[in-house]
Amino acid sequence: MYFLSNVFGAFMASFNPVTQKPLSFFQQLPDYYVNPTITMPMPSGREVIVKNESERLGLGSFKGLGGMYAVAQLISDQWQRKHGIPLKPSELLTKSVREMASSLCFVCASAGNHGVAVAAGSHLLGARSRIYLSSSVPQSFEQRLLNQGAQIVREGSTYEASMAAAMADAEETGAILLADSSWPDYEYPPSLVMEGYTIMAEELRREFEHANGWPTDVYLQAGVGGFAGAITYMIRHSWPIQPRIHIVEPEYAPCLKASHQAGRPVSVEGPLSSMGRLDCKEPSIIAFAILQSSRVNYLTVSEQEAEEAKHQLQDGGISTTPSGAAGFAALLNYEALHASQAESEFKPMVFITENFNV
């Protein structure tokens, strides 16, 4: 098993997940259930293991695991500061906690799914939310946010511009900034988001251990890297059989690959990508540190490749977007490299991260 080095110890100190904490929260909710894998054939005839997160918690993506849990934990932190005692997960939905939470407002920028998760968590627990969207975020997200009681603010043409506006809002109003990216001096809230994501890797570990059927290769799509970093961390720390891990980014936004090559977090430039939830030009420093220390490969996919992968998945009965299909697109690109290997030597796994309607 690989272990993370302490080269980026200052960053790594902010991410020490305890998966049972988000599990204990979600197990209180009727919409939570263990999401098993399925297998589907590829054009070559090989099978791929698929973890389909497109219906997670009824929110259309895996993001609910992060944003909802982070809201719950930040509310719990506020309660403990006020009353001097920690909350049990079962107490988070009580009237007294909701009354306290009603004075809180969570603000974030989003390419769509993170905002829905923060809004859903806020709505569930009695808090308010204000979500900043860039002009490139599809209109369909607005109604989903409104359904969760969120206030919506359109700001800027890019995710980075909407993030700057959300940060200014939190500074001016005292709202709680809940970003899914991290930067120096801002690590705790995004580490909670990533801690929520670790549930997926733990579900997989238990499933693979029970079936004794571990993948040899795992493909993880990445925007700022929170999802990819959290899953990578858990694989390297808790899976007894270690796969190769491939980090997949749009050709137009390879911020993690560029940061790896530079040896430090850097921003990139490029046009807007149709992989909108992955179209991030700056990495999360927590994610960067995890990936830099975890022996991963970096792959990019083009707009056309992601679109073609989306259609192939649709033919197989899975409806998703280019963002949701990006890992599968990378697998299709690089499967030929393993054409001569036996099935036991190449058993790939991909995540479908969102559904077609998001």
Strand content: 5-15%
- N to C succession of SSEs: HHEEHHEHEHEHEHEHEHHEHHE
Question: Biggest β-sheet, characterized?
Answer: 6 strands, mixed
Radius of gyration: 19 Å
* Strand numbers in spatial order across the main sheet: 1-2-10-7-8-9
Total strands: the figure is 10
What structural class do helix, strand and pairing data support? alpha/beta
Shape: globular
Can you give a write-up of this model?
- The protein is α/β, with parallel strands linked by helices.
- The protein is built from 13 helices and ten strands.
- It has a six-stranded mixed β-sheet. Strands 5-4-3-6 form a four-stranded parallel β-sheet, sandwiched between helices.
- Helix 3 packs parallel to helix 5 (113-125) and helix 12 (303-315) packs across helix 13 (322-334).
- The model is unreliable at 1-13 (pLDDT under 50).
